Write the structure tokens for this entry.
Amino acid sequence: MYKVFLNNKCIFLTQEGDPLAGRGGKVHQYYSISGLSEAIEEFERDRKADNLYITGDPEILITLFPVIEAAGGLVKKPNDQILFIFRYGKWDLPKGKAEVGETISETALREVTEETGVTGLKITKELLPTFHTYRMDGKRVIKKTHWFEMTFADDSNIVPQAIEDITVVKWLGQKDIPWAMRDSYASVIELLTTSGYL
């Protein structure tokens, strides 16, 4: 099963007969790409439904969309503070799209440094990826973001990357994170929850 975020709603790509399908949402049995597109567009407009379950073979369903690879970091201090960025009125984690020729871990390290100014990053653990969907050039795509837990050597030159519309880079402690998550993304909340930080 794949959990794909659409804004703060969820699309589940799941097996036919999944007993969870339909709980708190709509069900669409995959039969064609055009039918799938219509179901997603209708779900996006629907203000009442929070979940859409698309049933079929999840491994085939995920291949029906162009996938954009991205990567980012959950950067920790020894006292368990986490490095956040603030962009477009939301608290987020530093991340970005992969460039040609990069490994996904290289993307994560580069993007965190570019967006925050923190240097000497070291990956300590790979975390679960998150997925979200949006329209790009009129076509629906899925962005797969690979996440890595990281440590760092130097945070003395923290600076938000203005060209990426980042206005704040800040360390947040355990008592501040739930407050910040009131203005964040469902995918970030999911990552922090599955990683044991919420």
